[in-house]
Amino acid sequence: MVRLPWWMGGILMSGLLLLTFSVFGADRPIGASTYVPYFADIVFNLDPEKYSYLKEIETAGAWEGVMLLGALFGGFITSIFITKTFRISLIPSGWKKYKNNSVLSRLLWSFVSGFVMIIGARLAGGCTSGHFMSGMSQMAISSMIFGAVVLVSVIITGRLFYNVEEK
Amino acid sequence: MDIKIITEGEDFASRIVQMFENVIHQGHGSLALIFLIGIIFGGIIQYTRVDKFEKIAGFSMLKDTIVPKMLFLAVGLTSIALYFMIEAGWAHYHVKPILWQGLIIGGILFGISMAIMGKCPGTGPVSIAEGRIDVLIGAIGGLFGGLVFTLYYDDFFKPLMGESLGKLTLPELFPGHEHMVVLIFGIVVTLIAIAIPKVEMFDEEDLKRLPDEQRPDRQ
User: For A22-50, how does the pLDDT look when each residue is reduced to its tens digit (9 = 90+)?
Assistant: First the structure.
């Protein structure tokens, strides 16, 4: 499998974080969850005058929105030309192995978990990128609290939700 | 800072153009640079394969540790370099406030959904870009999540997040010893990344496309 080792990924990600933080780059952290309500507001055509949250996230949402377009493009190019892993699929192999074979079940759980994920990220004020990577790099106490809660929550859910013993 | 928005209109196309205008005028890098940051971000995630279900859901089952190893390494290295960049005036702090209720309730919900979807909001789009329809459905769910959050922010979600206890960083807790705290934090986190035992869950669909000698599970 064509891929970078984890330590190379960590070093590159660190370089990207520093570039983004620096005044020569964007002078702000990397974040990847504010764009979701921002796009929701565009898709559902909400009136920015009516909702205070829209005003709060306008700048960060637009910034992350453009970054996300770049990430889609970068991921697409890499998957086609470098890792050659582009393929249309409806259900991950790991889901079949540890959960079930039902496409409908996977799609429903995806929809529900996507919904809950954004509510959770916005309540906490960040996600894996904004809190875990950018926040903990600044040694922010808020991000360490978030990181610890998420780690515990992920591991407990994994235990309960999947049939951890192979079928 | 006032951001000049020239484009009028409330239809979908105008609002996309307004997004670009907003970014151009907000002073956080040029449009091209931000797009490039996104490309590199997506490229790193794709090239290291951490966007795969088997990596994040695999971690939730403790059958894969690539994601925490990579995350902790990135944090450990960045924390030291960033601190000295900030001291030199080359970067600024952007610390998020401590909202106990928001962080704990949000963190629990986020963790549950991350384990089930096997993605997070940063890796999800990269998965969609490589053709994962189930994640696209998840993203549509996310859009509805964002909609509900915006609609009920003032009445429900903002009170739920609780009072802010301000912005605080670890070095601020040890006045006079900031540099030592930064170095210890950075080194300890980096060592944690190295010390986490490397276990991996692979996707058969990816493996069976490879010749035997290239399969990472047979090496």
Answer: 999 999 999 999 999 999 999 998 888 88
ipTM (interface predicted TM)? 0.95
Do the chains contact at B133 and A7, CB–CB below 8 Å? no
Count of CB contacts below 8 A, A vs B? Answer: 535
A163: tokens are 């049939």
Instruction: Please list, in sequence order, all residues whose beta carbon lies within 8 angstroms of the beta carbon of residue A45, skipping any fewer than 6 positions away.
Output: B10, B11, B12, B15
Give the model confidence (pLDDT) of B59-104 as tens digits: 999 999 999 999 999 999 999 999 999 999 999 999 999 999 999 9
According to the model, what pLDDT value does residue B44 have? 97
Enter the DSSP assignment of A65: H
Distance CA B78, CA B74 (A): 6
Using one digit for the tens of pLDDT, what is the confidence trace for B119-130?
Answer: 999 999 999 999
B10, B145, B170: residue with CB nearest A139? B170
In contact, B23 and A62? CB cutoff 8 Å: yes
Position A163, amino acid = N
User: Given a cut of 90, is residue B9 above it in pLDDT?
Assistant: no
- What's residue B12's pLDDT? 85
Rounded Cα distance, B58 and A9, in Å:
18
Binary contact (B137, A117; C-beta < 8 A): no
Task: Say how many CA atoms lie within 13 Å of A55 toward its Cβ.
Answer: 6
Distance to chain B for A65, nearest Cα, Å: 8
Q: How far is CA A131 from the centre of its chain?
A: 11
- Which of A100, A128, A151 is the mutation pick for testing B, counting most B CBs within 10 A? A128
| Cβ count near B63 (within 10 Å) | 19
